[in-house]
């Protein structure tokens, strides 16, 4: 009681004017720490709010580096993660249980059909009741989906050869750009899941069509029970596809790839190993990466190498404005100016423009990825809603050619916009090139910051321009 009274009086007693802030905080915390367990404060929730940490302890509580989880995963077993993997992950456990249950039922039903139907103690008689045999056939087609379910369940077993994504190697953990590599097994599973969905839709339409055109005349109880069980398992497979998709998203987000564009299947890399890259291709790729990573020393070195190899006018030959082929297709030039403008890297822009890069060059900023992920989501979206974090923003840019000023305005890089307009005299009314008339707009239409709007209008941007000459579709 004396301790409580002393502590309470310590808090309620007015502090002297000469007391510093540090002393005030020390007295308050000291008073709170003296409350015994179970004491109810009139304005708080007990002693759990009284814990204090030293600066060293607070430093240790900081968020770990972005790749610390990847470093921990390097210590995992090389072949099998064990049963603890399935038990520790809700998504893995749910996928394993639902998939294993469906596979067991499907295999049992097929064994029952093909090994017991034509024996002495057969459950079905091959009489003239053709319609019952037809419904049993539909059920058998449904049970064969268990083969696809089996392969889609394997990633949840903890066997690492069936992993959906590969981790970064320890030597790659210092890279600023984080990419998750999609395994070949994931791409196989995505194609298999699409095939399963299409197969199930076709089977459903076939059953509905047969039921509409033929009166139901099957009266054999075992056949009806066999078909009804197939319907239940068939419907549960849609839930299983949802479980696989959520497990896929869970693993992907654990590795930091929240959007589909944060992962790669390395298809281009596999193709690239079959053909020797020229010096121009090497410079183009390395210069793009150097600007993307903000490494100015590498940028200058690559620019000097390109000028020595191709001449001082190499930028006009290597990086012409991209063009739409047949009004719809375009190949990205991988222009580093657009990357630097999007990131607001003015020093890199100065180096590039000094090397002769065009300030008004058009390029396709968002390149189309060669991946089974797009095919997967094109069909699976009708079964499972795609998470918002996985949706790549500004998908229209995949088919739209933009100038560096478009990129800087779209990312609200105020200083970069001012640099491009005032110092480099970039054209403020250049229209984007796109198959869609609604996307053929000037940089002003991308502006979201009032300062950027003011800069563009001061430079003579046309406020009254109508996209596509009035046609919006």
Automatic annotation (TrEMBL):
User: What Pfam family is a match for this entry?
Assistant: Ank
Gene3D superfamilies named among the record's database cross-references: Ankyrin repeat-containing domain (1.25.40.20)
Q: Show the coiled coil region(s).
A: none
Q: Which UniProt keywords apply?
A: ANK repeat, Membrane, Repeat, Transmembrane, Transmembrane helix
Q: Where are the transmembrane segments?
A: 95-116, 136-162, 183-212, 224-244
Presence of keyword Lyase = no
ANK repeat feature ranges? 332-364
Task: Region Disordered: list its residue ranges.
Answer: 36-61
UniProt-recorded name of the protein: Uncharacterized protein
Which organism encodes this protein?
Aphanomyces astaci (Crayfish plague agent)
């Amino acid at each position: 009681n004396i301790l409580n009274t002393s502590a309470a009086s310590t808090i309620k007693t007015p502090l002297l004017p000469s007391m510093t802030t540090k002393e005030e905080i020390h007295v308050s915390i000291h008073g709170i720490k003296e409350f015994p367990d179970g004491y109810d404060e009139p304005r708080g929730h007990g002693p759990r709010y009284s814990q204090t940490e030293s600066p060293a302890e607070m430093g240790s509580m900081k968020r770990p580096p972005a790749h610390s989880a990847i470093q921990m995963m390097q210590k995992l077993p090389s072949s099998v993660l064990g049963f603890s993997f399935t038990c520790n992950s809700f998504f893995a456990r749910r996928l394993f249980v639902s998939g294993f249950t469906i596979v067991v039922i499907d295999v049992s039903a097929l064994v029952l059909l093909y090994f017991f139907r034509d024996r002495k103690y057969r459950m079905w008689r091959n009489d003239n009741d053709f319609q019952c045999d037809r419904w049993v056939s539909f059920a058998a087609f449904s049970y064969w989906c268990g083969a696809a379910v089996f392969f889609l369940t394997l990633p949840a077993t903890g066997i690492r050869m069936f992993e959906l994504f590969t981790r970064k190697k320890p030597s790659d953990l210092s890279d600023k750009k984080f990419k998750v590599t999609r395994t070949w097994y994931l791409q196989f599973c995505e194609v298999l899941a699409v095939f399963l969905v299409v197969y199930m839709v076709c089977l459903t339409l076939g059953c509905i069509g047969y039921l509409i055109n033929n009166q139901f005349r099957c009266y054999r109880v075992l056949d009806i029970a066999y078909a009804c069980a197939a319907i239940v398992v068939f419907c549960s497979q849609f839930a299983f596809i949802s479980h696989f998709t959520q497990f896929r998203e869970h693993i992907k987000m654990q590795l930091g790839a929240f959007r589909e564009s944060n992962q790669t299947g390395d298809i281009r890399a596999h193709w690239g190993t079959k053909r020797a890259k020229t010096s121009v291709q090497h410079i183009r790729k390395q210069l793009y990466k150097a600007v993307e990573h903000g490494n100015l020393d590498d940028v200058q070195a690559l620019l000097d190498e390109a000028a020595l190899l191709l001449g001082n006018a190499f930028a006009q030959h290597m990086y012409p404005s991209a063009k739409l082929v047949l009004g719809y297709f375009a190949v990205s030039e991988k222009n580093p100016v657009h990357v630097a403008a999007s990131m607001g890297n003015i020093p890199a822009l100065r180096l590039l423009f000094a090397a002769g890069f065009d300030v008004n060059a058009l390029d396709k900023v968002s390149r189309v990825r060669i991946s089974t992920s797009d095919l997967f989501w094109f069909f699976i979206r009708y079964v499972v809603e795609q998470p918002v974090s996985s949706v790549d923003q500004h998908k229209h840019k995949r088919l739209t050619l933009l100038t560096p000023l478009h990129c800087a305005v779209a990312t609200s890089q105020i200083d970069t916009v001012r640099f491009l307009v005032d110092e480099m005299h970039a054209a403020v009314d250049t229209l984007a090139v796109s198959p869609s008339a609604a996307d053929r707009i000037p940089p002003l239409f991308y502006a979201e910051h009032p300062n950027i709007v003011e800069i563009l209008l001061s430079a003579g941007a046309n406020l009254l321009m109508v996209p596509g000459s009035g046609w919006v579709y």
